[in-house]
């Protein structure tokens, strides 16, 4: 169960677009995503800013508005936001599986929120209640290194 929560936490950022925003891949789109989540433009994302960004992304993925996201909905959202789904490190079905605590094959808003909240806490390296782009990049890099 602990491993499922850790995996869910890491996947949560993938779902709300934060991996692109914080991965430091040099793309301007990532900077824009960070800026959108950083609503007060102080260079940090608070837990409330992050939660709001996660809710917005979840709602945009839930195209049929049934309160859950399927792999097909997630694929469509990735294609719309990133312009493509190829090159993704983990399939949408695998992301959902890691966070799907009730095993129904879909991601509920509650499951997404829990994973996102956990990842935010893990990413807040100095435990000051906010996450900088550098902290998020480090958390993403650690997660990618752990997968190898």
Describe the structure.
The chain is mainly alpha-helical and 148 residues long. It is built from eight helices and four strands. The chain has a two-stranded antiparallel sheet with strand order 1-4. A two-stranded antiparallel sheet has the order 2-3. The longest helix has 15 residues. The chain is globular, with a radius of gyration of 14 Å. The N terminus is likely disordered.
Write the layout of secondary structure elements.
Elements: H1 2-15, H2 18-22, H3 28-37, E1 44-46, H4 47-61, E2 68-69, H5 71-82, H6 92-99, E3 107-108, H7 109-123, E4 130-132, H8 133-147
Antiparallel strand pairs: 1-4, 2-3
Please provide a brief summary of the model.
The protein is mainly alpha-helical and 148 residues long. It has helices spanning 2-15, 18-22, 28-37, 47-61, 71-82, 92-99, 109-123, 133-147, and strands at 44-46, 68-69, 107-108, 130-132.
């Amino acid at each position: 169960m602990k491993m499922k929560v850790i995996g869910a936490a890491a996947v949560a950022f993938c779902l709300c677009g934060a991996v692109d925003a914080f991965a430091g891949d040099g793309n301007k789109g990532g900077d824009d995503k960070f800026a959108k989540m950083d609503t007060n433009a102080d260079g940090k994302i608070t837990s409330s800013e992050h939660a709001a960004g996660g809710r917005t992304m979840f709602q945009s993925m839930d195209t049929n508005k049934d309160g859950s996201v399927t792999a097909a909905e997630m694929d469509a959202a990735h294609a719309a936001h990133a312009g493509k789904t190829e090159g993704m490190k983990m399939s949408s079905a695998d992301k959902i599986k890691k966070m799907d605590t009730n095993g129904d094959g879909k991601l509920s808003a509650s499951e997404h929120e829990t994973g996102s909240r956990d990842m935010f806490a893990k990413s807040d390296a100095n435990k000051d209640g906010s996450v900088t782009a550098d902290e998020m990049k480090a958390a993403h890099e650690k997660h990618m290194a752990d997968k190898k």
